[in-house]
């Protein structure tokens, strides 16, 4: 698969625990093409969070290789990983994770600060993305002035601000009611329609239904991988 | 990069105002204490230096030895062992700038209906040079006045005020011991010496006139005291040794005989006084610096709390692309800003209190730009030194752990 955004081969991760070495991930192979919309599912302890941390360049694997946009990142150091997270990835978390003291606009613009973009450009880009998620009029407000669903939309705008190849969403609807969840999933659908690759971690089957492809983890391995609507 | 970070550090400081203010208070007190102590210490040094400079520098005196009459010993300077000839010989030595033979004592002065007791010094014009004493009104007397024993006098400021009041003393005649003296000049003010004696309460007249008309002396040509000024502080010891050798030779003293004169280094007392105040001012500064260190530890303490509290924020920042050095500089900048703000306030407070001390107690205080700059440099240093460990701790957090932190 030549245009794969993500390709992992034999990816493994073990943790040292009091009871000895615990393998959270045991040799995972997966390829995700540009423009895909993929849901990663599985019960807690199945290794899906570990897998997401590795995909998100927040952690380094114990074994195997990981190519992100053609670059093998398994061997990069912490600062190089930080730059990669900044330029190539956008994160959406379950808990929104906006910085409480900053205006929404500054929150959205924050990744650009670390990318060294000048102030005028930062403001303009943040403004455009806040408009895109329908919250332009709240640009100067603090995060605690708006609802959870709105906060998650701001978080999505922040994930998009550096024009990433890939968005990683970890249980993005976990803290939201079903109506708001639908709105967020519709937004993801639109973004995917614009050609952005989305990797979604969830344990809710009806949320996973929004993705085009579903991968299921159990005990550190992939046990199923199929397109939505097809039989598992 | 530094601009948005300054803004963020400002926001972080504003997020918990009371805590930031209390942390800053440590620095305010520390810097304030240093500024006040330096101001007082330097003030004391300045006051001593002022006094020393009025005494004249690199001076020593040679006093005549004592003599005994019917079992009663006179004090030093009582004997007839020093002569004007000795003074002239000392003047020929290397490293000697000025030599002034003097004869002094306390006498009653009279002008019109006023009278006043004052120190009368009979000497040569070199005395004024040695003491670096200027004449502010009129003129001094010359060597010819000494040779012909004219009755002229130069008076100090205190004498002028007490005898002449608002009148111009120059050209008036005052009497010392019934002898009339023409006042030719008024000396510039010098103030107190190190013993607290008023140096301006003085009348200076030619040595020869003093000996003949005022003090009287059984041995003409002998003097009680010779004041010698060396070229430089380095030349002092050498000049004193040379003077001793010269006088022993002139007085024909054998190896085993004691000196028939005394010598005293006037500058040594002044220098030890200066050294004492210098030590005191260093001590004051050192004690005050301790509070600065305590202030620094306060900053470190609060920064550690702040890092723990903001663990999740650090995780978020790392996830969206902050490198370790971005986090490090963010927290370091915050520490330095708190330190700097505290320093600025401490500086203002210290200056205000130092000025108040000067206003209410009259104590001399000196506020120097160097001290202020030093305080700022130290504050920045304290901020970086005590902010480094917490900032390092923040930068080394594991992003996954930090994101999970509740």
Give a written overview of the molecule.
The complex is a heterodimer of chains A (232) and B (406). Helix content of chain A is 34%, strand content 29%. In chain A, strand 9 and strand 10 form a beta hairpin. Chain A has one domain: P-loop containing nucleotide triphosphate hydrolases (Rossmann fold, 3-Layer(aba) Sandwich). Chain A has 232 residues and is of the alpha/beta class. Chain A is built from 7 helices and 10 strands. In chain A, strands 6-7-8-3-9-10 form a 6-stranded mixed beta sheet, sandwiched between helices. A 4-stranded antiparallel beta sheet of chain A has the order 2-1-4-5, with helices on one face. In chain A, helix 3 packs across helix 4. Chain A is globular and about 50 Å long. Chain B is α+β, with helices and mostly antiparallel strands and 406 residues long. Chain B has 2 domains: 185 residues, no CATH class; 194 residues, no CATH class. Chain B has 13 helices and 14 strands. In chain B, the strands form 3 sheets. A 6-stranded mixed beta barrel of chain B has the order 5-6-11-8-10-9. In chain B, strand 5 and strand 6 form a beta hairpin. In chain B, helix 2 runs antiparallel to helix 12, helix 9 crosses helix 11 and helix 9 runs parallel beside helix 12. The mean pLDDT of chain B is 85. The chains are: A alpha/beta (232), B alpha+beta (406). At the A-B interface, helix 2 and helix 3 of A face helix 1, helix 10, helix 11 and helix 13 of B.
Write the layout of secondary structure elements.
The complex is a heterodimer of chains A (232) and B (406).
Chain A: E1 4-17, E2 20-33, E3 37-41, H1 48-55, E4 63-68, E5 71-72, H2 78-88, E6 89-92, H3 104-115, H4 119-132, H5 148-160, E7 166-170, H6 178-193, E8 197-201, H7 205-208, E9 213-218, E10 221-227
Parallel strand pairs in A: 3-8, 3-9, 6-7, 7-8
Antiparallel strand pairs in A: 1-2, 1-4, 4-5, 9-10
Helix pairs in contact in A: 3-4, 3-5, 4-5
Chain B: H1 2-15, H2 17-55, E1 59-64, E2 68-69, E3 72-73, E4 82-83, H3 84-91, E5 96-111, E6 114-123, H4 126-130, E7 135-138, H5 143-147, E8 152-155, H6 157-164, E9 173-176, E10 179-187, E11 202-206, H7 207-215, E12 222-223, E13 225-230, H8 235-250, E14 261-265, H9 266-309, H10 311-319, H11 324-361, H12 369-395, H13 399-404
Parallel strand pairs in B: 6-11, 8-10
Antiparallel strand pairs in B: 1-13, 1-14, 2-3, 4-12, 5-6, 5-9, 5-13, 7-10, 8-11, 9-10
